[in-house]
From TrEMBL:
Signal peptide: none annotated. Its cofactor is heme b. CDD domains: Cyt_b561_ACYB-1_like. PROSITE patterns: CYTOCHROME_B561. GO terms for cellular component: membrane. This is ascorbate ferrireductase (transmembrane). InterPro entries: CYB561/CYBRD1-like (IPR043205), Cyt_b561/ferric_Rdtase_TM (IPR006593). Its EC number is 7.2.1.3. Its main location: membrane. PANTHER family: CYTOCHROME B561-RELATED, TRANSMEMBRANE ASCORBATE FERRIREDUCTASE 1. One of its GO terms (molecular function) is metal ion binding. It is an enzyme of class 7 (translocase).
Length: 230
């Protein structure tokens, strides 16, 4: 299924939203939360790596990987490589981001995996990894038969989009969870930081929506180099 409109306007908005979201999450964690570090006596600074890496990695770079087939006027094999590499970067950043959350909890004597956000996060990163490995083996190296690739492609696309929507939903849950903790600790509910976090969460959801719209729309050229599995 495809929308009868070109993908270009959607991908343009998506790129702009991605840049804006990266700036917002960095401003939040550097300016309002004090910075992002790997080692510190202030353990909260370690946790700040988590939202930065998860948003820039899984949400933004992961989304760009999905729409690369629609936004880049390149040969199919080149787009396939870009798609694979971007997803690999997103996966690595996601794993580091999750480890940063565990590191913060362990060094702060806080229990791990007690929330819906954390449960979903572990499940999502596992599914993301399985999806990447399957895509690498079947579509890149050593590569499956033509029949296997043809039969797998629609499922690969649908499953990948499903996992990505889980990423976006869990990111929104994460923003809500963190903001609730901060407000319970005295953060002003209508203060600048609270508004910034809510805007970032809304922007994340919009980014995910434009990823879906881009996937369902017509790419640069619907020919042998296009990606029209849906």
């Amino acid at each position: 299924m495809a929308l009868g409109v070109k993908a270009a306007p959607f991908t343009f908005v998506l790129h702009a939203l991605g840049i804006a979201l990266a700036v917002l999450v960095l401003i939040w964690n550097i300016d309002f939360r004090g910075g992002i570090v790997w080692e510190s006596t202030n353990k909260s600074l370690i946790f700040n790596l988590h939202p930065v890496l998860m948003l820039i990695g899984l949400v933004i770079i992961g989304g760009e990987a999905i729409v690369s087939y629609k936004s880049l006027p390149l040969k199919k094999e080149v787009k396939k490589l870009i798609h694979l590499v971007l997803h690999a970067i997103a996966l690595v950043l996601g794993i580091i981001g999750i480890y940063a959350a565990f590191k913060f909890h362990n060094e702060s004597n806080i229990a791990n995996l007690y929330s819906l956000h954390s449960w979903l996060g572990i499940g999502i990163i596992v599914l993301y990894g399985i999806q990447w490995i399957y895509g690498f083996l079947v579509f890149f190296f050593p590569g499956g038969t033509n029949g296997l690739r043809r039969e797998s492609l629609p499922w690969h696309v649908v499953f990948g989009l499903f996992v990505y929507l889980l990423v976006v939903a869990n990111a929104a849950i994460g923003f809500l969870e963190k903001l609730t903790f901060l407000e319970n600790s005295g953060l002003a509910k209508y203060g600048t930081e609270a508004i910034l976090v809510n805007f970032t969460a809304v922007g994340t959801i919009l980014f995910g929506a434009f990823v879906v719209l881009s996937v369902l729309s017509q790419g640069q050229a619907e020919d042998e180099y296009s990606y029209s599995a849906i």
